[in-house]
Specification:
There is one protein chain. The chain has a single domain (3-360, 441-492), classed as Glycosidases (TIM Barrel, Alpha-Beta Barrel), CATH 3.20.20. Strands 9-6-3-2-1-12-11-10 form an eight-stranded parallel sheet. Strands 5-4-7-8 form a four-stranded antiparallel sheet, with no helix packed on it. The protein starts with a strand and ends in a 6-residue tail after the last helix. By secondary structure, the protein is of the alpha/beta class. The longest helix has 27 residues, at 180-206. It has helices at 24-35, 71-76, 82-86, 99-119, 126-134, 136-151, 162-165, 169-178, 180-206, 224-228, 266-271, 275-287, 322-332, 348-357, 398-404, 407-417, 424-437, 447-450, 480-492, and strands at 3-7, 40-42, 210-215, 243-247, 257-262, 290-293, 301-306, 316-319, 338-340, 361-364, 386-389, 442-446. Strand 1, helix 1 (24-35) and strand 2 form a beta-alpha-beta unit.
């Protein structure tokens, strides 16, 4: 069935308190999607972010980002007053997220709500207790990790005292008692995140909108997952990493790329039926209707570098778990729906795994127009079982791409999509129309492209530090006229899902 959707991160919503969240604006965006004839809302990972603010380097592969808890919802629940919420500084720029201001204010605000929740008997409520029991596998470890991060002033768990780093039972018991209030606060935040997200997801489902969520292939080295499940990773007996992830040297990077994420011990994971991964997929299946696997290549093959190395030059290409892993996933979670992010280096191993799995891959039109004029991403090379994008969160907006690409690529794109528009707005919409024309079952367009935004609205520029994950939509910016224009495309190219 041909469908279409919009890529728009939660943090980019124009809600009131400094960052997009599960607020009324999120519900209005669901209404906008419905009015625009769309079927899907693609978001980025929802995990708690750390230094650098990247949702692809979360502190947990299971937990939710407390920044997305809507303060207005807490006010309506009687856990805050409007005056208290308005008394905090969450940043003055309505079109950029100020993560420093959020860090200094959001947790203090949520702490007030937690105190009221306790006073109202919330911690003994059946709903809260059921949540804690249901999510016990990850919640208890994450809450303790969160508390110990406070104890060590944010330092990586690799630098903690040995007893805490190695999770000695006596030390963990002592920490649970000493930091009981902090642990309870962490559980409260995860509970409120779950309550508000479930409500929003249910609303989207009632409107016929599927949520496409992201699952990063790797976890952050400084994460609750690496600390609490060392058996899943290539650590030595003292829980010191032996190998980390990256990319081999190439023409663009003579020393390669050293990402630093822990790599998985796939041999031991296979022996226990990939239990940690199955739980991870099950958690994401609860949260999303469709899961987009970031860096799908890693399941076919991955590059591992000795932990102590300063560059990626001496790494080694390793074989991933392949179809054996996905057969187990299908067996345990037969209804799971997956999109494979297979962009970049399409090796024979990755192409075979994609074909064997049956998952739809991705096509990005910005990659289609190059000097060869025969790119894999040109629409006549698309497969029906795939997803087409003008660009992703890692790309410039399509307007910015048009402004910065070479004269050859721009001219080739014009000829290919038959665009005679001299203005950038018309050119961008012609690119969108080309994506809608693709035979790919699903077409997903970043919201910034519909708005013909330039580089100021870029979400992320890989390889750069600072300035990413910040763009926000100005308040009251979406119109009925825009929804009507998008709906016309969906109807014209048979993407209403009917």
């Amino acid at each position: 069935m041909r469908k279409s959707g919009i890529l728009f991160p939660i943090f980019s919503l124009s809600s009131r308190y400094g960052i997009g969240c599960f607020s009324k604006e999120a519900y209005r965006f669901v209404d906008f999607l419905k009015e625009a004839g769309q079927n899907c809302w693609q978001i980025l990972p929802l995990g708690p972010t750390g230094f650098g603010d990247s949702p692809y380097q979360p502190f947990s592969a299971f937990a939710g980002n407390p920044y997305f808890i809507d303060p207005v919802g807490l006010i309506e629940d009687g856990l805050l007053t409007a005056a208290e919420a308005d008394g905090f500084d969450f940043g003055k720029d309505r079109e950029r997220v100020d993560y420093g201001a959020l860090y200094n204010s959001r947790y203090a605000l949520l702490s007030l709500a937690c105190e009221r929740f306790a006073a109202k008997g919330g911690f003994s409520s059946a709903d809260y207790l059921e949540f804690c029991k249901r999510e016990e596998f990850w919640l208890e470890d994450y809450a303790l990790f969160y508390a110990l991060k406070q104890k060590y002033n944010g330092a990586s768990w690799l630098d903690w005292e040995e007893a805490d780093r190695l999770r000695e039972a006596k030390a963990l018991k002592a920490a649970e008692e000493e930091y009981a209030d902090t642990i309870r606060f962490c559980r409260f935040m995860q509970y409120m995140f779950s309550v508000q997200w479930d409500k929003l997801k249910t609303y989207a489902g009632e409107k016929g909108i599927d949520i496409i969520g992201d699952i990063p292939f790797y976890v952050a080295m400084d994460s609750a997952d690496a600390w609490s499940h060392p058996e899943a990773f290539c650590f030595d007996k003292d829980r010191v990493p032996e190998l980390v992830a990256g990319c081999p040297p190439d023409a663009f990077s003579p020393t390669g790329q050293l990402w630093g994420n822990p790599v998985y011990d796939w041999e031991s994971r296979k022996k226990d039926g990939y239990s940690w991964w199955i739980r991870r997929f099950a958690r994401n299946q609860e949260m999303f209707d469709i899961i987009r696997i970031d860096h799908f290549h890693g399941f076919a093959e991955y590059y591992a570098i000795p932990y102590k190395d300063k560059t990626a030059e001496h790494g080694k290409q390793m074989e991933g778990p392949g179809m054996d892993f996905f057969r187990v996933v299908r067996e345990k979670l037969p209804d799971i729906r997956i999109i494979a992010e297979d962009l970049g280096n399409n090796t024979p191993e990755t192409e075979k795994l994609l074909a064997d799995s049956g998952f739809p891959g991705m096509n990005v039109l910005q990659y289609a127009f190059d000097w060869s004029e025969s790119s894999y991403y040109l629409t006549y090379n698309h497969r029906k079982n795939s997803v087409v994008y003008t660009g992703t969160h890692d790309n410039p907006t399509t307007r910015a791409w048009i402004e910065s690409c070479s004269d050859h690529d721009r001219d080739f794109a014009r000829r290919f999509i038959h665009s005679e528009n001299s203005d950038y707005g018309g050119f961008v919409w012609d690119m969108i129309r080309e994506a809608y024309r693709s035979c790919a079952d699903l077409c997903v367009i970043p919201l910034q492209d519909y708005l013909v935004k330039g580089n100021e609205a870029r979400i992320n520029e890989p390889g750069t530090a600072g300035g990413n994950w910040q763009w926000r939509l100005p308040p009251n910016f979406l119109s009925h006229e825009l929804a009507s224009s998008i709906r016309q495309l969906a109807v014209l190219y048979g993407r209403t899902g009917k």
